[in-house]
Design a protein that fits this description.
Blueprint: H1 2-25, H2 46-57, E1 68-69, E2 85-89, E3 102-106, E4 111-114, E5 122-124
């Protein structure tokens, strides 16, 4: 009987560990959490690197809403005080408006890209662009 109890405890510990690991490493688009590992701009639209250059230069920006406060209403980025996040348009060739692509930058320099108007985010390397 004691041998069965030991296996049950071990199985419970493994199961709890797996659940914790799954929750803390989930980055699926439906999870609402941004990706935790940063990626380079390779494979992203060329306009991402161009927008990052404009941000690094401090503008001038092609859209009046660029460098405005991003409110993070969707809660997809880490919670920060109002004004922490700023957003910038990534132009979409052929679009008659600003399109859906944005870069969101935090005060500490972290940078996220969204190609689907804030539904999902990809964290970019600080060295990108």
């Amino acid at each position: 009987m004691r041998a069965n109890t030991g296996w049950r405890v071990l199985l419970a510990v493994v199961a709890v560990g797996f659940v914790i690991w799954t929750v803390t490493t989930s980055n699926s688009p439906d999870s609402g959490r941004p990706e935790t590992s940063a990626v380079s701009t390779t494979g992203l639209p060329a306009e991402v690197a161009e927008t990052l250059t404009l941000i690094g230069d401090g503008g001038p920006y092609p859209y009046t809403r660029d460098d405005s406060v991003f409110m993070n209403r969707e809660g997809r980025l880490p919670a920060r005080p109002r004004g922490y996040w700023r957003e910038y348009t990534v132009p979409t060739p052929g679009a008659s408006d600003r399109g859906a692509r944005r870069i969101v930058r935090g005060e500490a320099g972290e940078v996220y890209y969204t190609g689907d108007h804030y539904r999902t985010f990809t964290r970019l390397d600080r060295g990108s662009g």
